[in-house]
Write a structure and sequence with these properties.
The structure is a homodimer of 252-residue chains. Chain A is α+β, with helices and mostly antiparallel strands and 252 residues long. The first copy, chain A, has helices at 8-15, 20-33, 46-53, 57-69, 125-129, 179-187, 205-211, and strands at 42-43, 73-76, 80-83, 98-99, 106-107, 110-120, 136-146, 149-159, 193-202, 218-228, 232-241, 247-251. Chain A is 25% helix and 33% strand. The longest helix of chain A has 14 residues, at 20-33.
Chain lengths: 252, 252
DNA sequence: CGTAATTTGTACGTATGTATG
DNA sequence: TCATACATACGTACAAATTAC
């Protein structure tokens, strides 16, 4: 149903014209993806859209409800239909769900800013972000702590071309909310989905030092790529997690 | 939208009666959860259901489509509506998606049966399965290999009460398909969702030996609980993964 | 191979209920 | 109180896919 999944409808296009509701749905989606309609904004009512596009209200409902299911819109009875922001609610943000056991509780994590600087592009970061290696990247380093003890150390890489003046913000700006939220609020780019690769590595050098563990001790290693509209990657992240008592939770 | 999420509709019940489509939806869901309609089975047509329940076809459509979105049913134009099986298509089965890199390809894994035996219940397995410790469990041990090299070793624990005669199957039965599929086909129990906990551990004893790695080398450790209808857990699994060249992929 | 019957998919319409401001 | 907007529920007609004849 999402952009990355099926293109069943496109196959039909060869034989028969696309359904009215589907063309409308894609037209509305384009408004959002192109930034004409921004997150939080109220869109026109069913009747208005129906009038503008010369279709029935039922057809508008179908198009709009599909976009609600896809996470592009949300509706409130009596008020209207709004553009949705980052799909990833706190529930599905794996990074920040550290648990003691499968039936245990969630730990509150504190974010600590370590550093932010411009660096030259490198692989695999540049390749995974779809940029040539000569484009500058921002490198953001952060630490996540629970009860004062470091649990996760992560390095994020973001294209300077997209995130202009990223280094003009005070460090506190990176410590008060998740990076997802900060980017959505500041640049209007919501996070639509992530790709993640889980592995285990032995702690080494700077990482071991930041996390306060012995070199050689096992760490959970997560490589992540975040995507916004139109399947465009905008962040590459490497995380190292201490998982002695708490571990990273996921629900599928 | 799923059973484990919101109960918004229940709040309304205090003030106003539940919508017709919703009561029908829950009635159809109950048929599936109670096993009256089994995975793969064709359910009655829209018109038939509408006649039986004395509601309009549009109302049946809404109820049925909601259950499609929830993963309980799927529809084929011209054929009918069928009861869906395990939600987890191969795409979302993390365990069997071992990749070289975030933009790399997927590795085909071979399943090898190691052993199956009855054991006495123990915690955390019994607790996580919602059974007292004196109930017998099955312990299934398997190995997943790529190009002959072991990548994943896992131990599954299943209640003997649910999986009667689980040990009467030949080992090959566990090597030809995923455990999800085997259980769905044999016991009619589809997997609806999983909970997983990711961590890193140092290889030790039997696990290190099975995976052919040195003791102390880092392994990805995954604890998993699988749920079927009505949020009932039916499997507890511990997996140890060698993630030197290939790692476990997830999409959110 | 075409035809008919069945089933879902699309598109339209109307009326009424409920929530918001 | 009232207008607005979404939610529910009913209905009809035709298109498209499948299957059996």
């Amino acid at each position: 149903m999402t952009a990355r999944s099926g293109n069943l409808k496109l196959i039909r296009a060869i034989e028969t014209p696309l359904p009215v509701y589907y063309r409308l749905q894609e037209a509305l989606k384009k408004k959002i993806e192109d930034g004409n309609w921004k997150p939080g904004q109220l869109i026109p009512s069913e009747r208005l859209i129906a009038g503008e596009h010369q279709v029935s209200v039922g057809t508008v409902r179908k198009a709009v409800l599909n976009l609600v299911y896809e996470g592009y819109l949300y509706r409130i009875q009596g008020k209207g239909t709004y553009v949705a922001g980052t799909k990833l609610r706190k529930d599905s943000l794996r990074y920040y769900r550290m648990m003691e056991a499968l039936d245990g509780g969630e730990a509150e994590l504190e974010i600590r800013f370590i550093g932010l600087k411009e660096i030259q592009g490198f692989d695999p970061a540049s390749a995974l972000l779809g940029h040539p290696r000569d484009r500058t990247l921002y490198e953001l380093r952060r630490l996540f702590l629970h009860d004062g003890a470091p649990l996760v150390y992560c390095e994020s890489y973001l294209p300077k071309g997209i995130f202009r003046d990223f280094d003009s913000f005070p460090p506190a700006r990176f410590e008060k909310s998740t990076l997802y939220e900060m980017i959505e609020q500041t640049y209007g780019l919501p996070c639509i989905y992530n790709h993640e690769l889980f592995g285990a590595v032995a702690a080494h050098g700077a990482v071991a030092k930041q996390l306060g563990v012995n070199a050689g001790s096992p760490l959970l290693f997560i490589e992540m790529r975040s995507f916004t509209y139109k399947d465009r990657p905008y962040e590459f992240r490497r995380s190292y997690c201490v998982t002695g008592t708490r571990r990273v939770f996921a629900e599928i």
